[in-house]
Amino acid sequence: MKELALLLLVVAEASCRSHSPRCVPGCQCLEEPRFTICSRALLTQLPSRVSAASELLDLSDNLISVIPERAFSTNYKLRVLLLQNNSISQVEDGSFSQLESLQKLDLSWNRISTLTAAFSAGLALLRELQLAHNQLTRLDSWSFLHLDGLQKLNLSSNGIRSVHVRAFACMSRLRQLRLQDNQLTALRRGTFSMLRSLELLNLAGNRISQLETGVFNPLTSITLLNLADNRLSTICFKTFLSIHTYSTHILLRGNPWSCECELQRVFHKLQSIQRLLLDDYSNLTCREPPVLRGLPLAEVDGELCVAETVTVLIITVTVVITVLAAMLMGERKRKKRRKGLHWTQRGDLSDESDF
Fold this sequence. Notes:
Layout: H1 2-12, E1 28-30, E2 35-37, E3 56-58, E4 66-67, E5 80-82, E6 90-91, E7 104-106, E8 128-130, E9 138-139, E10 152-154, E11 162-163, E12 176-178, E13 186-187, E14 200-202, E15 210-211, E16 224-226, H2 237-241, E17 248-251, E18 257-258, H3 261-271, E19 276-278, E20 286-288, H4 297-354
């Protein structure tokens, strides 16, 4: 994104450049490269005329609420469209369908609650989509239907509770997916089935308490998996064993761990796998049992299995002793019965002899 950084640097210097007489009133236009800067212009709707030669259009920090259908039909050269920090609640079908050269679309900090099947129409070349800090509650199978070339997707700080297993089905080139600070409670197997190029998956700050085995199996390029600040109390070894990337950093702090012996065994197994790096293991703390609440797992885990092993041994010894005692008692009773039967038989024989 060096090219984009250069573009934004030029934008920052826009105040030192002269205004173009063809520019939209309230906006600022630069000829080389061609930028139209309408940030903080108190606009309540999209400007009626923007130069067809514009490659960057900045409409951030305004009061725009609706993006009409075919709103940018004359701006087919746009590569960057910035619409963050508005009041956008409605994006009509086909709003961006003419923007076939668009590479970055920023719609963060708005009020968007739904994405229709036509939302992404025409955006086959889009590389970065910012939708953070909106009001999305679910991702459907059609939400990102046409985003075949997308590499970065930011959906953080919405209210997303459910993700259809095919919501990301077309995103084979996606490298970064940010879903932190939403309301996800579980991750189903198949959700990330097509994300073989994904390198970063941020799921921190959700309500995840359940991870289906194999949910991360398709992530053959993952280098950072962030599951911090969720509601995981335990984890399954096989869930992470299915990650086959050479070096994957996993973050798990801030979860309410139930510090039992089985959890210790799982973490010890995970730490023995060289390709998996538990970067924040020393920061994991116990929520349960109450006697261990707040204590670092790394400090108490060595004692967990010792205590459990002693308990198991005591129970085992007790059971063995009980069984042996029962066997001895049974044997004694059998001997008594045999002895009693023997004397009975001898008594019968003696009676017959007297007769």
